[in-house]
Fold GTP cyclohydrolase 1 type 2 homolog.
Amino acid sequence: MKIRDITNAIAAFAPLQYQESYDNAGLLFGNADWEVTGVLLTLDATEAVIEEAREKGCNLVVAHHPIVFGGLKKINGNNYVERVAIKAIKNDIAVYAAHTNLDNVRNGVSDMMASRLKLTDCRVLDPKRELLGKLYTFVPHAQAETVLNALFTAGAGHIGNYSEASFNVTGTGTYKAEEGAQPYIGQVGQRHLEPETKLEVIFPLYLESRVIQALLESHPYEEVAYDVVKLGNANKEVGSGLIGNLPQPMDELAFLQLVKEQFLTGCVRYTPLRGKPVQKVALCGGAGSFLLKKAIAAGADAYISADFKYHEFFDADNQIVVADIGHFESEQFTVELFYHILTEKFRNFAPLKSTIRTNPVNYL
């Protein structure tokens, strides 16, 4: 097994195209064609984690946070990022990060948080737009089913919990084959009228090349007519944060105690209580203050996230209870998510979970 087999499995679950513009997810160090000797899963690729990988014979570290976030102009070992880079490269250890792309997909980081509280009826809090495209093409009636199946296999036609979604309408296409053409139907030099089916399918834009390739390979015509349109629709399956419902309404203090227990945190910072039960809960792994207004607009009783600054707590404005549980604490179960992705894909392969607690924050 090569490193690219592991990274491709993670990217299939959380496409790199879904990472935020400021992010640096992907293969940071190493060669995708290296044979895998072992995989170590972690939240942060620290020096201690790289040493642990070396000791355990793992030449691939899969982390949630990219150790290289901005550009590296020098690698002299003057800070922990440079020291990690030197140690990883010196020991031929590859480092791969799945960060905001893993945050932004369903069944990703936010869903791991939601599962700790047994939230139901979950939906993305802030769905992303302009991630979808629509393909229009025209096919002779007899070949329409073949082309449609090829498009579905390539990943087109998925809308929420539905697959193989399309719209088909019949009409008449015309063309005249010029000298040098080899028409599938009709004669060179004569206008041909062909009963055709117009197919419309939606697809994730990151799959565009695969979908177009499937179209061209399955279509009978020498010259295939098609249009691709970028859609402004929100993709309800991709975006930041999550909102769902507790099984039963809870007293606010009881809810906060549940949060503290389930997220194994030594401290929950929270805004003034409102004297109302909590049932609808919004959450976001990592630094999530940017979603507070979305949580309020969605009618959440409480919002769980991390890294709120002092003045940002005021923004709750008695409309919601904010529970800041800590950055590490909100994302700590991402290691379990990595493990699940890889063991589901490779049944005879066992990645290792790092035993290093990388949280730089301690509590008294």
Observations:
- The mean pLDDT is 96.
- The chain has three domains: 3-99+333-353, 109-126+239-324, 131-231.
